[in-house]
Specification:
The chain is an alpha+beta fold. The chain contains nine helices and twelve strands. It has two domains: 141 residues, Jelly Rolls (Sandwich); 79 residues, Jelly Rolls, CATH 2.60.120.
């Protein structure tokens, strides 16, 4: 079984820490297991911990005032959930739900603040992470407010290709994640009916192939053209 130290080394955020700091951090942490469908934390809870995903996948869902659920992000192995809010002592901005059985390392605030105060390189990585998350959030806001649904769905699928795509034959890419049409609707701020029409049209065009909770991108370049609003 992977040790906490080995799991930290596999994460870019912690990989360059000196051995002494890595050993001290490892000794202060613990594992946590969550089952598929289990909630790790709820939107509005005080952020007591951040979490390093070592196996499995989780999604962050935000409940809007209008009663809708919007999937804000998907987290996979070596990614950290909740780092910024736990450092700032804020509330979790969404509910984290396990998409698979998942293994995580629990990261309390005190040792993280210790690293920030003593290791400038770690602080710089945290700043870069925050900048990346802000950039992604701005892009999502722009997509949800200004772009056609088809472009939004194409972009969300392409983001998943980068994170969980598995190469198949003839250039196809399978999304190695359980993904229902309702999940896609939540991710893109639209309805189940709209997602069903969109995927059916793409299936007719040979762009994707979808089953109950599985999507294969048969023609990734065609999906890029949809995302960029280019003629087919």
């Amino acid at each position: 079984m992977t040790t906490i130290r080995e799991a930290l080394l596999a994460c870019a955020l912690f990989a360059d820490l000196p051995d002494a700091a890595l050993d001290a951090l490892s000794g202060s942490l613990r594992w946590q297991h969550v089952e598929r469908g289990e909630v790790l934390f709820n939107q509005g809870d005080e952020a007591a911990f951040a979490y390093l995903v070592t196996a499995g996948r989780l999604r962050l869902v935000q409940h809007t005032l209008e009663g809708k659920d919007v999937t804000m992000a998907t987290f996979t192995s070596t990614e950290v959930i909740g780092l910024i809010v736990v450092l700032l002592g804020e509330q979790y901005p969404g509910t984290a739900e396990a998409l698979d059985n998942a293994e995580l390392i629990v990261l309390p605030a005190p040792p993280l603040w210790g690293l920030l105060n003593t290791h400038p390189a770690f602080s710089l990585k945290v700043i870069h992470m925050l900048a990346d998350r802000l950039h992604e959030a701005h892009n999502r806001i722009r997509e949800l407010s200004a772009e056609r649904v088809q472009r939004r769905v194409a972009r969300s699928l392409l983001r998943l290709v980068e994170k969980v795509g598995v190469a198949e034959g003839h250039g196809a890419v399978r999304l190695d994640i359980r993904l229902s049409r309702q999940d896609l609707a939540q991710m893109n701020g639209t309805t189940l009916e709209t997602i069903s029409r969109t995927l059916s049209a793409w299936e007719d065009d040979g762009i994707v192939e979808s089953a109950r909770e599985q999507i294969v991108i048969l023609r990734p370049h065609a999906l890029v053209r949809v995302a960029d609003d280019l003629p087919m």
